[in-house]
Amino acid sequence: MNFKFLDSLPTTLGGFYRPFMLGVKIIGIIIISILVVKMGSIIIKKVFEKQKSFKYGINSRKVDTMSTLLVSVFRYAIYIVAIITILTDIFDLKSVLAAAGIGGVALGFGAQSLIKDVISGFFIILEDQYAVGDVITIDTMNGTVEEMELRVTKIRNINGDLYIVPNGEIKRVTNHTRGNKAVIVDIPIAYSSDIQKAVEAANGVCEEVAGQFESIVEAPQVIGITSLGRDNMNLRIMGKTIANEQWEVERKIRLLIKEKFDQEKIEFFDANKLVMSESNTRGDGHGRQI
To answer: What is the mean pLDDT of residues 101-127?
Structure first.
C-alpha cells in the first residue's frame, strides 16, 4: 500500500497541518478510551456474574452493587488518564497551567459539587445504606436501585421512570428491603353478619395461605376487630414475609376472603343500608331531593 501521500500532507495542509494532526490525536485518544471503557465494563460484569453461580458466592445484590461501582471507578479512571494524556502530550502543559491560573478558581468551585457527590457515594457504600436491587425512597422518589456509582444513584420507579440522583443531594433514605415486612389486610364486616363465623372463615384462609408461600416468615393470623365504623366493623389479618413479598400475600388473602365469604354468605356491608343510602341520594320519587 502506498503511503507517500502522508509525506506530502505538511506541504498540502501548510499552516493547518499541526492543528489537523492534533485533532487526529485527540479523536484517536477519545475513541480508544471509549473502546477500553466498553470492553472493560463487559469483562468486569462477566467476572462478577460468575460469582452468582458459586455455591458459596457473595449475595447477588452485593455482587451487582460491586459490579456497577467498579465499572464506574474504571470508567472515571480511563477518562482521567485520557484527559491528562491530551493535556500533557498533545497540548503544551505550560500553557495549560497558565490557563489554569486564570480559570482554576472557577473550576475549583465547579468541582466542589463533584467531590461532594463522590465522598457521599463512598460513605453510602461503606455504610451499606442500600444496594442494587433494593427498593428505596429518596425524598419523594420511590423505586428500585438499578445502578450505584460513586457520583450518582439510579432508581427506576414502578412506572418505568428513571431517577438519576447525585449522591451529594441525598439527605434521607428509606430502605424498604431490609428486614421482614408486615402483611396487613383489613376486612370490612357488616354488623348484621355473624362475627364468629367471619373470624372462623378468616382463620381458614390464613391457614391456607400459610401453606402456599415459602416467603412467609410469620404465618398470617386474625388479630380481631380493630375499629367500629358507621356502616361496618373492621377485621384485621396480620403476618410477616421477607422483603418485597408482602403485596403478593396480601392480594392472595383478599381473593380467598372474597371467595370464602361468598360461600358462607357473610356480608361486607349491610345490603339494606346500601339500598336506603342509594335511594336517599336519588330522591324520594316525587321530584324532591331528600
So the answer is: 70
- Residue identified by cell 392472595 is 252
In whole angstroms, give the CA distance from residue 157 to residue 171.
19
Was domain 181-273 assigned CATH 3.40.630.70? no
DSSP symbol at 90: I
pTM of the model: 0.58
Cβ-proximal residues to 14 (8 Å cutoff; 6+ apart), any chain: none
Q: Are 162 and 147 in contact (CB under 8 A)?
A: no
Cα three-residue angle 245-246-247, rounded to 5 degrees = 95
Residue-wise pLDDT for 164-221, tens only, equals 999 888 988 999 888 899 999 999 999 988 999 999 999 999 999 998 998 999 999 9
CB within 8 A of 241, min separation 6: which ones? 180, 181, 183, 213, 215, 216, 217, 249
Distance CA 124, CA 119 (A): 9
